[in-house]
Amino acid sequence: MSEISLAQQKFLLTQKKHRRTVTISRLCIFLCFLGLWEGAARLQLIDSFFFSSPSRVFLCAYNMVLDHSLFAHVGITLFETIMSFFLVLISAIIITIILWFNKKISETLEPYLVILNSLPKSALAPLLIVWLGANYNTIIITGISVAVFGSILSLYTSFQSVDPEKIKLIQTLGGSKYHMLTKVILPASIPSMFSIMKVNIGLCLVGVIIGEFIASRQGLGYLIIYGSQVFKLDWVIMSIVILCLLAWGLYTLLSRLEQRYQNLAN
Amino acid sequence: MLECFRCSTIGKSTLLSLLAGLIEPEHGSILLYGQKLFQKTSGTIGYMLQHDHLFEWRTIEKNVLLGLEIQKKLTPAAQEKVYDMLKTYGLYKFKNARPSQLSGGMRQRAALIRTLALEPELLLLDEPFSALDYQTRLTVGDDIGSIIKKEQKTAILVTHDLSEAVSLGNRVLVLSKRPATIKSVVDISFPDNASPLERRNFPEFKDYFNKIWKELNQDE
Fold first, then answer.
1. What angle do CA A102, A105, A108 make, to 5 degrees?
2. N or C: which end of chain B has fewer CB within 10 A?
3. What is the overall mean pLDDT for chain B?
4. What structural domains and CATH numbers belong to chain A?
5. Is the peptide bond before A191 cis (omega within 30 degrees of 0)?
6. pTM, two decimal places
7. Which of B40, B51, B66 sits opposite A173 (nearest CB)?
8. Contacts of B73 in chain A (CB under 8 A)
9. How many angstroms separate the CA of residue B107 from the nearest CA in chain A?
10. Average confidence score pLDDT of chain A
11. What pLDDT digit, counting tens, does each position of A72-84 carry?
12. Does the pLDDT of residue A181 top 50, yes or no?
């Protein structure tokens, strides 16, 4: 392993070069965008009252850090998103297991799940707020409602796609349905659980923001809607930037976790 | 070792599932050593499927212990026995490997040890080599045959391969078309210590082969 042939060295070098070009290009796009935006605002090509500018966004964030309001807003949104994410995960797993155990229930409920999944959940949010009140429980439930039905459907499909011969193997070893679940179905479904989770984290964030739009005194969703109403567009754009960062961070965290699992499994 | 045999895929897997107690007969009963088979007989009967179905998320060690784990028989003594088998059949140093790191033959051996770990009185093998390429098939057949002989187990093997039947079996049961009934029984005898591969070189081999071939084609 210590000796690397010349051809391999060359190959590795081109790989490295390729990666470097991609990283630099990405950074360039970002910096060009910021530069153009800032420049256009300074030269008054665009009205910075409506379009804000990177420096104004940064200043706005800085001031909000100083008066501690930023952390409260980001914190509550993050808390609601993570809560609904975990509740979706747990309830989807439990419900899917129940559906898997009982064919009668799963076949009965299937059309309802499909309808609920295709329904635009933002339509439900106002109703939820009337029923449950304007508090963060409602917002968490809105987040759950966006992701949970799709998760159940995908997880159930993944349960169903486990090789029936593997299930037969458990039978030949004298195992019960419980063993099929714990020894085959669940471990075989872990990869699809990860991909479901990666989709869910984004969906939960969408649900939470919808909830905050409608009924909230705090959170990034509130900041966006309130900012647009009072023409504090610095708030709006700053919130959108923070949302981007949040979504990216949470997704990366899950990807890392998935990679960790894959390494562990090999 | 017994061989069940039929050209088409009619009925034999069902037959094995019945024998293994996976499905209950509509009527009639199945007797093993004079005792009626019930659905929860797993333990006395080991069933080896067409593919090894080793789980990729478990190490080889965890895979071969799966049966014991399910039946809650994972005692240190039982575990020791499995380790002995792994050592005897050259898998011990791979016990922490994943199934994908093993060759087809090693995987099939691991699958057999997983079945043998439950100390079955009767082994059922459903075309256990059909998923392997021809060369591996010969060596694995040899391997599995000698392991079963060494562990002194009775085995029923289902196969489409005539020469496999002759080289591995002591008795070949030729099954008819649906509904599968035993059409004829061919007793096979070779010198005692001849391995499955060596059997293929005996002059009797082709006689048995031809005899079974004729039995199979009688009604066509």
1. 145
2. C
3. 80
4. 71-221 (1.10.3720.10)
5. no
6. 0.83
7. B66
8. none
9. 15
10. 91
11. 999 999 999 999 9
12. yes
